[in-house]
Batch of 2 targets.
Target 1
Amino acid sequence: MDSYSLSAAAKINLYLEVVGDRPDGYHELVMVMQSVGLTDRVTVRRTGAHHIRLQCNHPDVPNDETNLAYRAAALLQASFPQVMEHWGGIEIIIEKNIPVGAGLAGGSTNAAAVLVGLDMLWQLGLTQIELQTLAAELGSDIPFCIAGGTAIATGRGEQVDTLYGLDGLYAVLAKSPTLSVSTPWAYKTYRQAFADTYMDITTAGPSRREHLHSSPMMTAISQQDGDAIGQHLYNDLEKVVLSAHPEVNEVKTALASCGGLGTLMSGSGPTLFTLTASQSEAEAIVQQMRSRYSDSQLGLWIAPLVPTSLQLIES
Ligand code: C5P
């Protein structure tokens, strides 16, 4: 095959707890991640030239080596130097639907799709664990984006334990078009405000992970109980992002007042989501939000919670 196209899903965080500082400068986290059916289309195809080229239909997405998807290809090429000599260069084509700088892992899921697509294109035969190990060098969310579905993510976020997936739930996603939040800024600001609450991660990392395992959120997930999941949504980073950006707080309040099972900011934001038990409830919430924000450009999407992140759609 000369070309593979994959759909690459966004993620939301159903739970995000900051445990403390890691020696590598990152934060130790305990999270529940969930793939949602809002997808980009990522194509990798062979070209005659011996280099990596990237194009994307979104003006804010860079098409050079600063793009995570480009860096994913460069990492695979560096790890397997013979591949380009054997197969020639590649082109990556990204058709963007996932909002950029949104806390939905759009860049990470594109990089995951490139790793999986090139594994097929270059016939590398890597296992999921091998792909996830490479992915962790590029970004903390990318190993989850390879696995997809519902998962507990710990460490930097790169240690992924897949759970039995959630079925039948939907998310209404809301994002202001003019605002994006930098992830490094969110974590740095959180550290400035809450360093005194940080725990020693050597003991607290495992104990907070255990705590999550026996928490009401995990019971709710294992029982597929949408109401209880909605009640136990949690994200530490809301504490800094909602206070620094009152407009995000305002959208959260509006979204939460429309009904649904529960409302939370995803990752480092600014996207907010409300869970619903059906597509029709999600549509009703979108309608209410559109009438409330009739003259704004507030982005609203309905996405089912899905069991996978990456799917081959064409080869
Ligand atoms: O791993 P990734 O490149 O996605 O992380 C982006 C930034 O977010 C990091 O440079 C760091 O500032 C912050 N971060 C963190 N702790 C994590 C994940 C990310 O402090 N576990």
Target 2
Amino acid sequence: MRKFEKSKKLDYVCYDIRGPVMDEANRMSAQGIEILKLNIGNPAPFGFRAPEELLKKMNDNLINTEGYSDSKGLFSAREAIVTYCRKKGIHEVGIDDVYTGNGVSELITMSMQGLLDSGDEILVPSPDYPLWTASVTLAGGRAVHYICDESADWYPDINDIKSKITDRTKGIVVINPNNPTGTLYSKELLEEIVKVCRENGLIIFADEIYDRLVLDGLTHTSIASLAPDLLTITFNGLSKSHLIAGYRCGWMSLCGDKSFARGYVEGINLLSSMRLCSNVPAQSVIGTALKMEEETKKLLVPGGRIYEQREYIYQALNQIPGISATKPKAAFYVFPKIDTKRFGIRDDERFVLDFLKDQKILLTHGGGFHWEKPDHFRVVYLPEMDQLKSACERLTHFLSYYRQEE
Ligand code: PLP
């Protein structure tokens, strides 16, 4: 029996854009206008439900998870995470190297706050998951964006990475599988990144929250498994793979050479204990969740929702005159290109705002992911197929007359 029935009317918090587009969406919602939200990487509002078994387990555990846990997390949860790391070829990790968090988000912030002095630089992809840039900046550092190349399947441009390393560069963020592009990196590419990090003494921040959401029978390689000699912090969590974004369950594991990073590890320990601990009921299901691979896999094969919706959105977007998209291989995002000349687009935020006002559909403009040119936007393809179809029809219609004025 499902004990955590949610009201459909619950308003889900949007985390990934701020500014005029979000302000307008809030204003429209307040007026009772229904908006189709293709901007949120949050599965629950779109009819995705967490596995029954997981919810039952959490419910059963509630009575034993009322108190604070160890600040790094329950021993059993961290033990399960270590087992998972080993399965992925990350052997240089022990229970003390694992920290659970209220989502990966909290740990991203913590990992930057513990590391950066004013003016230190971190290489962050462009396009990025914007929380990384925000966390670097809030910690007093400078996010230096390296280019991911659409013509090369959105792979990071290694020469661009090399050209941006300075004596202030402390580390590099590698988001694989990637949000917003949906790309999955090959082992060869990851090896090239590791080589650059090895040559320049960089810490690797590996955001792998989508590693269990890989399509087309492909395999995810954890970059830490290729760099046992380098300090690598790997981030993962249950928000996406187990459809429980609201329960706030993530973790990070430190592996590799920590000998030069004693102060950093002390800083992380301090920050971890300052927030006392992460959500304990959510931690208590990590072990169960990491053994439940089949539930997630069902979504990713022909007939599964994520697979079928990916097939549809990829084809439908590419059929719209002036739009082209690289096929995503993981996660549930696509980052299409829009022909700026054809539509006179100079401001991508304005394009998204105009589309919202006109068609009541919310997208995220490329600039929201620190993509410099005004020629991309992100679509979250989680909504049901009929909603995706309606969105593509409305986008086609809108673009048949849209021209951005001066
Ligand atoms: N990292 C990436 C690449 C994401 O896309 C997200 C959420 O969308 C997160 C981290 C944060 O996830 P959470 O805080 O729910 O674990």
